[in-house]
Amino acid sequence: MTSFLKPGAALAAKADATCWVIEHLRGQAAYRQQQAKRLSELARSDAGRADALEESLVFVLTQLQPAATRFSFPNHELSSRKSQAVVIDDEQALDSEWLAVTTTSKPDKAAIKEALKAGRQISGAQLLSRRSWRIT
Q1: How many domains does the chain have?
Q2: pTM beyond 0.70, yes or no
Q3: Tell me: the pLDDT tens digits for 103-125?
């Protein structure tokens, strides 16, 4: 419709064109959300494969050199660091002094870690030493 045929025809044409743009943008948004989900799944898969491959590499290298904490290659370096983490075996067995009080109670891992490091025995908790690896 042209504006010389009907007084509101120009407005109707612009509104119709705007509706087309809105539909187009919503369609693009839906498509991009689907693509984002697909890419997210691919990224998760790639990250899992990389983690498994790194775990395998570290296993082989540490079998060959159990005391090593660093491996140097022509283009990469594989290094490790030690960390400690408190593992709560039985939260119910912990005395209340080891619980951080919030609206719900949970173990105060920082306090438990310090006490365990100081040699204190705490029923329901243990201190584990771990080694994590990083490729740089």
Answers
A1: 2
A2: no
A3: 888 999 999 999 999 999 999 99
